[in-house]
# Entry
Amino acid sequence: METDLAFEISRTAILAMDCQTGVVSIYVQPPEEFLKRASGVLAAARKAGMPVIHVEVGFRPGLPEVSSRNKLFAALKANIQHQQLFQGAAGAIHPALGPEPEDIVITKHRVSAFTGTDLEMLLRANEIDTLVLFGIATSGVVLSTLLHAFDSDYRSIVIADCCADRDMELHTTLLKHLFPHQKALTTSTPSSQKRWPTRKFRASRSQSCAMGK
# Structure
């Protein structure tokens, strides 16, 4: 069954999540094709007038934002070497993706792009009700942000071939089963991008799962 997704350009923002230089180097090998697809999506979004929001992981010195009750981030706090992944050049958004002067950058301290950030305030201030999102990892920030967005009544679309994960089995399961079930999947194909400048963009589920084939 083919399902169409349509969104109003003026009420849509694109989220590029955790696409930091160090993260890309670990999760995407080789990175060139991924970066080409992702940068093409962002360029098309900017051309269409959609707000581009980069979400990055970052902490203050000593990671005071991290609780010992959070096992994932407590392990990061205890490992100085791993903290370097989110510092300096490694922690910066990959230069192939931006940020451009008009882009928005949000720093988060948890898995979801919403938790503990001002993302929702920015979306509401700009009357955004639809999110087009991608990032690393599929089973981390993409899944967590997507579920939060659904529970907050945002219409959401994941760009499948601009997501990556070190666990390919889980990555494929999410793209093939969970995300399509939520009617929230498309790809970065030029045929999709070229429709973005119009009033509505439509993407069918039959085009999805480029990374999950």
